[in-house]
Automatic annotation (TrEMBL), chain A:
The protein, known as: Radical SAM family uncharacterized protein
All copies of domain Radical SAM core, residue ranges: 260-502
Gene3D superfamilies to which the protein is assigned, alphabetical: tm_1862 like domain
PANTHER family referenced in this protein's UniProt entry, alphabetically: RADICAL SAM DOMAIN PROTEIN, SLL1084 PROTEIN
C-alpha cells in the first residue's frame, strides 16, 4: 500500500501557526528513504516541542543507527503545539513525521523516548492525532507497536495501558534487535498477528510487554504481586547496556535544524553512566557502570561533527563531565585544535570537586566565557551527606572564588528542596552559602562586580534509587521553605543584590512524583488530564496543577498515597519486575545509610561496594587513562 | 577586506524560515563551506554577514540579498558553489559578486511580487485591482509589535496586474484554477507588503481569498520609475569589479 506525504495538506495550515519552520523538516543531515525500499519502518518521537526534541541525543542516535540498517527506515516526529493541533483536528490531518511527512500510523514501530514523565500527555495527543487507538488492547494489526524508551521507561507502569512495549537502558543494540524480530515476523506473513509479535519480543527478556503481566493488589491498595500471565514470558525484564562506546561513535551526521532549538551545538557523549552515588539521582543509578569514550574517539567525533554541522559550539556531555579520566587532555587537545576558529567548548554537569580552573580556562580559550554552573544540591553539609553528594563548604567556596579571581563574573548554583530528612535550617543554609561565596569573591577580586544565582527546585523521589521508598515533601512545605530562602536572600542588605534567585514551586513536583512512582492505576489520571486538555505539562504556561488534582479525584486516585507516603522495605514497588541491575537489598541499605549519615565512595576509585549492577548485567567499568593525546589536525 | 554580495532564493517549504533561522543557517553553511569569513572584534565575535531587507516568514523569494566580509580574496563563482552546497536544499545561492562601490541596500528600491490565490474569484479580483489602482490612497491597518498601525498601501504600488494559472500551491486541489497577482512595490517606510495590498483589495472591493495566499518575491533592485521595471542590483558591481560572471538574471521559477 503506497503511503503518501501529507505535506500538501499540512502546508495549507502552516501560515496560520507559530514558528511553522519546526514542522517542515529538511534539516541538514536528515534522511528520507523510499518507503517501499524498507520492510521495517520506525517513527521516533520525542514527546515535546521540536525545539526541545530535536537536540535530544537519544532520538538522534537511534534515528541514525536505524537508517544505517538495510531495508529499514526511521523518521522523526515531535509534539505539535496546540495551535497546530486544533487545525489538524479541524482538517483531519494526522500526526506526521517531519522527514517525509508520512502519517505515523503507517509505520511498524512508534518509538517514544521519555526523558521525563511530563511528556506522557503529549504521547496521548500524538496517538490520538495519528488515529492509533489510545489503549493498547484496542489496537489491531494495522497499528504500529507503541514502544517507550528513555529514563522514564524504567517505570512505565502509569502509561502501561497505552503502551505495547517498553525497553530499559541503552537503545542502540535493542533497537536493532527489535527491528530484526519485526522483519522476520513480517517476512513470515505476520503469523499470529500483533499478539505473536509482542510475544516474540517479550520472550527475549529484553522487551517489556505490559499486557503479559498481571498486577494484583492488597485490599489496602499496595501491590500484592506482579506476575507474567503467559508461559515463556520472563518474571523480570532487564535493562540494556552498550559496552565499548568507541564502537558506537554516534551521532556521525548531526542534525542541523533551521528552527531555533534549546541547544545549538554539536554534542558528544564523553562517557555514559555515573557511580558517584548521589542518592537522589536516577540517571546515575540506572546507567551504571561508567563507560568512557576514549580521548581519540572523542577527538575524531568532534572533528567530524563540526565539519558535518557547521556548529560553533561543542558540548562534551555526560552525567559529570569533569570526571572523565583524561578530561584535561581532551580539553587542552580540543582547545589547541580549534585555536582561532571561534569554536567554543562547553562542559555541562561539572562537579565542584572535579572542577579545576585550568580546565575552565581551556574551555573558554576559543570562545565565549559563559557562566559557570555547579550543583551542590543540598544547602548544608548534613544534607549533602544524606544525598551522598559530598562537597564541603570549603571546596565550594574555594572553587567559586578561584573562578571569580580568574575573571568569571557569574556563577550559578543548583539546589533541591524537599530532600529526605530536610529541615528549614538546611534550606536556609543555602542563603548562608551564597553569601559566603559573594563575600569571599569580593575579597579575592577587590570588586563588587560579581554575582551568583541560586536556582532551586523540588525534589522528586525516583524509582531504582535509594530514595524510592522515601516520602516526598508536600508542596506546602517546599513552598514555605522556598519562600523563607527567598526572604533571607532578598532581605540581605550587604549581599542580596549580588545574589539572583530562581525557583520552581512545589506543585509540579507533586505531579511528577505521582507519575514517577505511580502504578497502572495512575493511567486513568493521565487519560483524564489529557481529555480535559492537558498538554505540554513540562511547560509552566501549559501545566495546570488543578487539572491534575481534579483528574486524580475523578479517577479515585489518592495523590498523597503515591507521593508523600514513605514505603516499607518489603512493599512490592510497581517497578520491581523491571531490572536496572541494582540489588534491592543494597538500595535499601543505602537508604538506611542516608538517614544515618553514612557515605558511599565512587567505585571507579575504591573497591566495589556491591550495588549489584555489573554481575547482574555482565558489565564492567570501562575507564581510562589511555595515555594518548590529541594531535593537531592537518588542515586540508 | 573583500566583500561578497550574494543573491539567494528561499523556496518551497523553506519559505517558512524566519530571518533569524536564515541567519543561523547561513553562519553554519559559511563554516561548513570553509569560507574565510571575517569576524567582528570584541568579547563575543560575530561573523561579518549582513542582510538587506529579508522577506517575511512564510513568503518565498527568488531575490534575497546578503553580504559577507572575507579575510582573504575569494573567487565569487567558487563561493557560490560552496555556499550553495552547504545550505539545505530550498535555500539556494543564485549569484555572487565582489562588492563594488556604494551600498547594496540603497539599490534595492522596489520589489516585484507574485501572489497566488488558489480558489479565488478571477472576476472579482479584476474588479478589486481596478478599484485599488484608481483610488488615490487606500488606508490599511497592520498589527505591528507596537500595536495597530494605519498607513497608505496604494502609493507604493507601481504596477499591479491579475492573471490566472493552474496552481501548484499547497492548498490547491489539482486542476483547480488560481488567481495570480503580480505587483511592483516601492520600498518605503512603513514598508508596504503584499499582504497589505491584499488588505487593500479587501477594503475596496471586499475581495477575500478563501485560503492563505502563496507569496513569492521575484526580484529586487533599482527602479525605473517610468516603466516600473527593476534592474539587477549587481550590474554596478559587475561593471566595476570584473569579478563575477553574470549569474542567472530575470525570473526564476519557485520550486
Amino acid at each position: 500500500m503506497p503511503v503518501e506525504s501529507i505535506f500538501h495538506r499540512l502546508e495549507a495550515l502552516l501560515p496560520k501557526v507559530q514558528k511553522p519552520i519546526q514542522y517542515v523538516g529538511g534539516e541538514l543531515n536528515s534522511t528520507v528513504k523510499d518507503w517501499d525500499d524498507a520492510d521495517v519502518r520506525w517513527a521516533l518521537m520525542y514527546p515535546d516541542a521540536y525545539e526541545v526534541g530535536l537536540p535530544n541525543q537519544g532520538v538522534a542516535i537511534l534515528y541514525e543507527i536505524l537508517n544505517e540498517l538495510p531495508a529499514t527506515l526511521a523518521e522523526r516526529t515531535y509534539a505539535v503545539w496546540p495551535d497546530l493541533e486544533a487545525l489538524m483536528r479541524a482538517e483531519g490531518v494526522p500526526q506526521f513525521t517531519v522527514d517525509a511527512h508520512r502519517p505515523v500510523r503507517a509505520f511498524d514501530v512508534f518509538g517514544v523516548s521519555f526523558s521525563t514523565e511530563l511528556g506522557y500527555t503529549n504521547m496521548l495527543t500524538a496517538l490520538d492525532l495519528a488515529g492509533i487507538p489510545m489503549l493498547a488492547v484496542e489496537r489491531g494489526d494495522d497499528d504500529p507497536i507503541v514502544l517507550a524508551g528513555g529514563h522514564a521507561a524504567f517505570n512505565p507502569e502509569p502509561i502501561a495501558d497505552f503502551l505495547d512495549a517498553a525497553v530499559l537502558g541503552d537503545g542502540e543494540q535493542i533497537a536493532i534487535a527489535i527491528t530484526e524480530v519485526v522483519r522476520e515476523w513480517k517476512a513470515e506473513g505476520r503469523p499470529g498477528g500483533r499478539d505473536e509479535l509482542l510475544m516474540r519480543l517479550a520472550e527475549s527478556g529484553g522487551v517489556y510487554v505490559p499486557k503479559f503481566y498481571d498486577v494484583d493488589y492488597h485490599p489496602d491498595g499496595r501491590i500484592k504481586r506482579v506476575a507474567p500471565n503467559r508461559a515463556d514470558v520472563p518474571w523480570r525484564v532487564h535493562k540494556h547496556t552498550v559496552m565499548d562506546l568507541d564502537e558506537w561513535p554516534y551521532p556521525k551526521k548531526p542534525l542541523v535544524p533551521l528552527a531555533e532549538t534549546v541547544h545549538e551545538r554539536f554534542s558528544v557523549e564523553i562517557f555514559r553512566g555515573c557511580t558517584r552515588g548521589c542518592r537522589f539521582c536516577q540517571a546515575g543509578m540506572i546507567t551504571r557502570p561508567v563507560r568512557e569514550r576514549s580521548i581519540t574517539t572523542i577527538g575524531a567525533m568532534v572533528d567530524n561533527g563540526i565539519k558535518e554541522s557547521g556548529f560553533n559550539e561543542v558540548g562534551l556531555l555526560s552525567l559529570s563531565s569533569a570526571d572523565h579520566s583524561e578530561i584535561a587532555d581532551v580539553a587542552k587537545g580540543l582547545a589547541d585544535r580549534y585555536e582561532g576558529t571561534n569554536t567554543s567548548l562547553s562542559l555541562p554537569s561539572t562537579r565542584v570537586d572535579a572542577f579545576n580552573i585550568d580546565l575552565a580556562n581551556e574551555f573558554s580559550r576559543n570562545g565565549r566565557r559563559s557562566g559557570l554552573t555547579f550543583a551542590p544540591e543540598g544547602g548544608s553539609e548534613r544534607m549533602r551527606k544524606v544525598i551522598n553528594k559530598m562537597v564541603t563548604e570549603e571546596d565550594l567556596i574555594r572553587t567559586v572564588t578561584t573562578a571569580y579571581s580568574q575573571g568569571w563574573r557569574q556563577v550559578k548554583l543548583y539546589f533541591m528542596c524537599g530532600l529526605p530528612t530536610e529541615t528549614d535550617e538546611d534550606v536556609l543554609g543555602i542563603a548562608d552559602l551564597a553569601k559566603k561565596v559573594i563575600k569571599a569573591g569580593r575579597e579575592i577580586t577587590g570588586s563588587r562586580d560579581i554575582r551568583c544565582t541560586v536556582s532551586i527546585g523540588g525534589f522528586v523521589p525516583k524509582p531504582h534509587t535509594p530514595f524510592q521508598w522515601a516520602g516526598q515533601a508536600d508542596h506546602e512545605t517546599v513552598d514555605r521553605r522556598l519562600k523563607a530562602l527567598r526572604d533571607s536572600l532578598r532581605g540581605d542588605k550587604e549581599f542580596g543584590r549580588a545574589i539572583g534567585y530562581r525557583y520552581h514551586d512545589g506543585k509540579p513536583s507533586i505531579v511528577e512524583g505521582l507519575l514517577s512512582r505511580g502504578d497502572r492505576r495512575v493511567g486513568a489520571v493521565i487519560r483524564a488530564v489529557w481529555e480535559d486538555g492537558g498538554r505540554f505539562d513540562g511547560w509552566s504556561e501549559h501545566f495546570s496543577y488543578q487539572r491534575w488534582m481534579a483528574a486524580a479525584e475523578k479517577a479515585g486516585v489518592d495523590v498523597d498515597w503515591y507521593t508523600t507516603r514513605e514505603r516499607e522495605e518489603n512493599e512490592v514497588l510497581p517497578w520491581d519486575h523491571l531490572d536496572a541491575g541494582l540489588d534491592r537489598e543494597w538500595l535499601w541499605q543505602d537508604w538506611q545509610e542516608a538517614v544515618s549519615g553514612g557515605e558511599v565512595e565512587d567505585c571507579r576509585w575504591t573497591p566495589c561496594y556491591d550495588c549489584g549492577v555489573c554481575p547482574t548485567m555482565g558489565t564492567e567499568i570501562q575507564v581510562g587513562p589511555t595515555g594518548r593525546k590529541l594531535l593537531p589536525l592537518t588542515v586540508v | 577586506m573583500q566583500r561578497l554580495r550574494v543573491r539567494y532564493a528561499k523556496r518551497g517549504r523553506l519559505r517558512f524560515t524566519s530571518h533569524r533561522d536564515i541567519s543561523r543557517a547561513v553562519e553554519r553553511a559559511v563554516r561548513r563551506a570553509g569560507i574565510p569569513v571575517a569576524y567582528s572584534a570584541g568579547f563575543s565575535p560575530h561573523p561579518k554577514i549582513s542582510y538587506a531587507g529579508a522577506a517575511p516568514t512564510g513568503v518565498a523569494s527568488e531575490a534575497e540579498y546578503l553580504e559577507i566580509g572575507v579575510t582573504t580574496p575569494c573567487e565569487p563563482e567558487r563561493i557560490r558553489g560552496d555556499l550553495d552546497g552547504s545550505l539545505p536544499p530550498g535555500l539556494d545561492v543564485l549569484d555572487v559578486v565582489e562588492a563594488g562601490p556604494g551600498g547594496l541596500a540603497e539599490r534595492l528600491e522596489a520589489s516585484e511580487w507574485e501572489v497566488r490565490l488558489p480558489g479565488a474569484d478571477r472576476e472579482l479580483a479584476g474588479v478589486a485591482v481596478e478599484k485599488f489602482l484608481s483610488a488615490g490612497a487606500v488606508e490599511v491597518e497592520r498589527l505591528t509589535k507596537k500595536g495597530p498601525r494605519r498607513f497608505d498601501a496604494r502609493e507604493a504600488v507601481l504596477r499591479l496586474a491579475v492573471s490566472e494559472g493552474t496552481g501548484r500551491t499547497a492548498a490547491q486541489v489539482p486542476g483547480q484554477s488560481c488567481v495570480i497577482l503580480r505587483m511592483v512595490v516601492r520600498h518605503m517606510t512603513p514598508a508596504v507588503r503584499p499582504d497589505d495590498v491584499l488588505a487593500g483589495l479587501r477594503l475596496v472591493a471586499d475581495f477575500a481569498p478563501p485560503v492563505p495566499p502563496e507569496v513569492t518575491r521575484l526580484a529586487q533592485g533599482p527602479l525605473d520609475v517610468g516603466t516600473g521595471a527593476l534592474a539587477d542590483p549587481f550590474d554596478l558591481d559587475r561593471e566595476t569589479t570584473r569579478g563575477g560572471e553574470a549569474g542567472p538574471v530575470g525570473e526564476h521559477v519557485a520550486g
